[in-house]
Amino acid sequence: MNRQDMAAAFAATTYRVATREGDFALRIGVADSGFDDFLGRLTTSPERLAALAGGPVDGLVGWGIVTAYNPGSLLSEDQNSLRHLRLYDRLSASRWLFLAGCNVADDNLWPAEPNYLVLDVQPPDIVALGREFGQVAVVWGRRGTAPKLLWI
């Protein structure tokens, strides 16, 4: 699949995220005011944000969505499940807050893929995490903007 086809596939996917306030259905290039409101209600102190970002920040740094499923090709369910557990362990050992979700293709040509939405993350960090798990791209956004695709 060439990059243009991959971009179209990423754009034709809903990135679902489960929160304590309900689920959000995020899309590349589409701002979601309800999700922005949710982000605004998070109780992240300026001190915590500064510690997470390695220096002073003016607000929520950003968020990213990453999966460990099917890097470059279709893997067995067992392989994907093990990779997903490794991603969970990696995130649990990190400084980031994260929420579970799943990627759902509009055409249902592949099963839903579990993902994690990582909070208070900068683009280079979510790209590095995606690279670590063999992905070709990740989703990144910031409160008040539409999510975008970051190629790895």
Describe the structure.
The chain is α+β, with helices and mostly antiparallel strands and 152 residues long. The chain has one domain. Helices cover 34% and strands 27% of the residues. It is built from 5 helices and 7 strands, in the order αββααβαββαββ. It has helices spanning 3-11, 33-41, 46-53, 77-92, 123-132; strands spanning 13-19, 22-26, 63-66, 97-105, 113-119, 137-141, 148-151. The chain has a 7-stranded antiparallel β-sheet. Strand 6 and strand 7 form a beta hairpin. The radius of gyration is 15 Å and the shape is globular. It starts with a helix and ends with a strand.
Task: Give the arrangement of secondary structure elements.
Blueprint: H1 3-11, E1 13-19, E2 22-26, H2 33-41, H3 46-53, E3 63-66, H4 77-92, E4 97-105, E5 113-119, H5 123-132, E6 137-141, E7 148-151
Antiparallel strand pairs: 1-2, 1-4, 3-5, 3-6, 4-5, 6-7
| Order of the strands making up the biggest sheet | 2-1-4-5-3-6-7
End-to-end span in angstroms? 15 Å
Largest sheet: 7 strands, antiparallel
Structural class based on helices, strands and sheet pairing: alpha+beta
The oligomeric state is: single chain
- Tell me the Rg in angstroms: 15 Å
Mean pLDDT: 88
Q: Give the number of domains.
A: 1
Low-confidence stretches: none
